């Protein structure tokens, strides 16, 4: 359940970064910020920290957390890459 919540949170945060990036770019009239690219850096830090907590506090093995990390980071990251290279 936690994996599903974290993945959904990642997609919601990506949507917020994308929307705010589009707003800032529209106001400036040019590309100022690439929301999905900025999201990738932030989400990598958040998901790695989530994995760290899973290993140190919850007692999961590193192998189990790597599989969870693949989904928690991977799905929102793939969506971010698609948005980065999408023609708007």
Characterization of the model:
The chain is mainly alpha-helical and 88 residues long. The chain is built from three helices and no strands. It has helices at residues 2-28, 35-56, 62-84. The protein starts with a helix and ends with a helix. The mean pLDDT is 92.
Key terms for this structure?
88 residues, mainly alpha, elongated
Shape: elongated
Low-confidence spans? none
Order of helices and strands: HHH
- Main β-sheet: number of strands, strand sense, barrel status? none
**Straight-line N-to-C gap:** 34 Å
**DSSP strand (E) fraction?**
under 5%
Residues in helix, %: over 70%
Number of helices: 3
CA radius of gyration: 15 Å
Structural class: mainly alpha
**Mean of all residue-level pLDDT scores:** 92
How many strands in all? 0
In short:
The protein has about 90 residues and is mainly alpha-helical. About 80% of the residues lie in helices and about 0% in strands.
Map the helices and strands.
Layout: H1 2-28, H2 35-56, H3 62-84
């Amino acid at each position: 359940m936690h994996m599903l919540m974290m993945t959904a949170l990642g997609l919601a945060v990506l949507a917020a970064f994308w929307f705010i990036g589009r707003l800032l770019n529209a106001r400036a009239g040019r590309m100022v910020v690439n929301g999905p690219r900025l999201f990738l850096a932030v989400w990598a830090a958040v998901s790695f920290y989530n994995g760290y907590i899973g290993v140190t506090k919850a007692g999961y093995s590193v192998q189990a957390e790597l599989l969870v990390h693949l989904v928690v980071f991977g799905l929102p990251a793939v969506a971010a890459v698609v948005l980065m290279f999408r023609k708007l």
